[in-house]
Write a structure and sequence with these properties.
Blueprint: E1 2-7, E2 10-13, E3 18-26, E4 33-39, E5 45-51, E6 57-60, E7 68-73, E8 78-83, E9 92-104, E10 109-114, E11 118-123
Amino acid sequence: DVQLQASGGGLVQAGGSLRLSCAVSGYTAVDYTIGWFRQAPGKGREGVSCISASGSITYTADSVKGRFTISSDNAQNTVYLQMNNLKPEDTAVYSCAAVDPRGSCQFLYGIDYWGKGTLVTVSS
């Protein structure tokens, strides 16, 4: 099994920055892609950005391109989401998850493990 723990959320003003961390642990024979997903109040969950086990960025949502950057530190088993120029519409619970390499971050299938989310609130 794979365990994921997201952290780093908080309250920030519009235009500010936050860095989320996803600590990944456990054993698996699958080289999972790790992704960040978010769910805003009253809305469905959406994929934000994903990175493969080899460090390739496999998906970034159009709504965050140029503002959010995903990265990984394999030595620390941690995946980061650097969020810059935050907007009120970025307010959501952000969760990280392990996605089967044959799955899709954009269409949310093949997601085998979820971590508990962290709340990001952007004030205007």
